[in-house]
Design goal:
By secondary structure, the protein is mainly alpha-helical. It is built from 14 helices and no strands. The protein has helices at about 5-15, 20-40, 50-55, 60-90, 100-110, 115-125, 130-140, 145-150, 155-180, 185-190, 195-225, 230-235, 240-250, 260-290.
């Protein structure tokens, strides 16, 4: 008598059917590769358990490569946060025409995912030794980027500037909803109490936005630290960063140690996971304020 009709029994599984491709994709290309890296980081070449790979992370040039990667990530995250925040604030609160907002957000959505070999080629074609900007400055103004301005696309700042191409749009996408969440009543109340625009931002807006800003900085840091293809395609072996060291260990050379490469990748996973956890935690706190 109380049996569920067949149509209702089938409805529950069908509602989850659309998530099957996503679950398969995440399992095959995220969870399984990550587990393979984590397991390989604690194995020897014959498959036995060892902690030597983790200990070896403190040997040779590996610590310096992590340090350089951290500095590049911090620099690109800081510059991306400042420039992206300024652009988003100009669109939301400034005198920039409203029609600019939609194209800017659309471009940001595309540019924030533009990385790897195409991005490296684009910057080499623009700022490389025979790039468009390099040749133009040398031919028309006699300015040599590396000699006169000290800029080299294959250097620390060259990679940092390249990362800004996707760091700034990512900042715009994330911080724009937070800026739009600032209520007009808060600013009006501050003005009624005699606060200037600077005092409003310093005492009201920025304290509310601080969790979002700090969380977005952590996300941008993780985004830059985990960027592998762009760094390898752009700098090759000219810059001692973690992705280059990792590639050298796992590509199969005689002196390569794949399991040490797994340990280096495991270290990158730990750093990026920690940064993402900070972002998620601060994002939750920011959403409580803006509700």
């Amino acid at each position: 008598m109380n049996e569920t009709p067949p149509s209702r029994r089938l409805r529950v599984p069908l509602t989850w059917l659309g998530l099957v491709p996503f679950a398969l994709f995440v399992t095959m290309f995220l969870i399984l590769p990550t587990m393979h890296i984590v397991i390989g980081a604690f194995q020897t070449s014959d498959g036995s358990f060892t902690l030597q790979n983790i200990v070896d992370l403190n040997s040779g040039t590996i610590p310096s490569s992590y340090w350089i990667s951290v500095k590049i990530s911090v620099a690109s995250a800081a510059l991306g946060s400042l420039i992206g925040f300024a652009m988003a604030a100009a669109v939301v609160f400034g005198t920039v025409p409203r029609w600019v907002k939609s194209p800017l957000l659309t471009f940001s959505g595309v540019a924030s995912n533009f990385a790897g070999v195409p991005l490296a080629f684009a910057f080499l074609a623009t700022f490389g030794p025979v790039g468009l900007v390099t040749v133009f400055l040398r031919s028309n103004f006699g300015i040599v980027l590396q000699r006169d301005l000290g800029f080299n696309i294959l250097s620390f700042w060259g990679l940092t500037v390249t990362y800004l191409f996707f760091q700034i749009p990512l900042m715009i996408l994330i911080i724009t909803p937070a800026l739009e969440g600032l209520r007009r009543e808060w600013r009006e109340a501050a003005e009624v109490l005699g606060a200037t625009a600077l005092q409003y931002w310093r005492m009201v807006a920025l304290p509310i936005l601080f969790p979002s800003l700090l969380g977005t900085f952590a996300l941008l840091f993780a985004n830059a630290f985990g960027a592998v293809a762009t760094a390898i395609a752009l700098t090759g072996s000219s810059l001692n960063i973690v992705p280059i060291q990792l590639y050298a260990q796992i590509r199969g050379d005689v002196l390569g140690n794949p399991h040490l490469g797994y340990a280096m990748a495991f270290g990158m996973i730990v750093v990026t996971a920690f940064a993402n956890i900070i972002y998620i935690w601060l994002r939750i706190r920011a959403e409580r304020w803006l509700k």
